[in-house]
Hints:
Elements: E1 18-23, H1 32-41, E2 45-50, H2 60-67, E3 76-78, E4 83-84, H3 87-93, E5 96-102, H4 104-111, H5 118-125, E6 130-134, H6 138-142, H7 144-155, E7 159-160, E8 166-167, E9 173-174, H8 181-193
Parallel strand pairs: 1-2, 1-5, 5-6, 6-7
Antiparallel strand pairs: 3-4, 8-9
Helix pairs in contact: 1-2, 1-8, 3-5, 4-7
Amino acid sequence: MPEPSNEKPATTALAGRRILLGVSGSIAAYKAAPLTRLLVKASAEVQVILTEAATAFVTPLTLGTLSKKPVLTGFLRDAAAGEWHNHVELGLWADALLIAPASANTIGQLANGLCPNLLCAVYLSARCPVFLAPAMDLDMFAHPAVTQNLARLRSFGNHIFDSPSGELASGLIGHGRMLEPEDIVDELVHFFEK
Ligand SMILES: Cc1cc2nc3c(=O)[nH]c(=O)nc-3n(C[C@H](O)[C@H](O)[C@H](O)COP(=O)(O)O)c2cc1C
């Protein structure tokens, strides 16, 4: 029988921080699982919000289990009972809103103040720092529409993580990859250490 692990959660600047993790519909959404795990290991409290497109790439069950909280995917909790998820309260609850991966579609919606889903509504309601980790194929990432949308989000004071160059899911090589989960967590730790 293996010995039970005595591993203690790491104490970092993320300890006790309330992180809203928005996951949108990129192939990189599978990396939301190790990202959630690392945030929880850093003793952050994590509430995951998935877009509908993201649920095709990573399941609420996986992220709900890792975050130890039910995942939110839509405005309504129980339509028949008239129960809904309060995006204003969620926006006020968070110490940081991290959108990783951020798809071209979600980036465009946020940059233009559109509100088609819970994640966008929370973004518009949030008073906390916002971090986005774009993830898309290199031609999408290089498109002026995406570049302009990211510049617009930066002008709102949002933090946009670099997209490292490397091999993409399409087999093409270039920028567009999501920053690795370990590096995202390091960036957040540095932010909260300041
Ligand atoms: C297999 C597959 C992979 C995709 N990967 C990406 C991606 O990496 N980045 C991206 O911006 N869109 C990607 N898309 C397109 C998005 O899923 C699509 O634009 C979707 O509407 C995004 O919705 P959301 O922003 O609400 O999550 C992909 C679509 C498919 C079918």
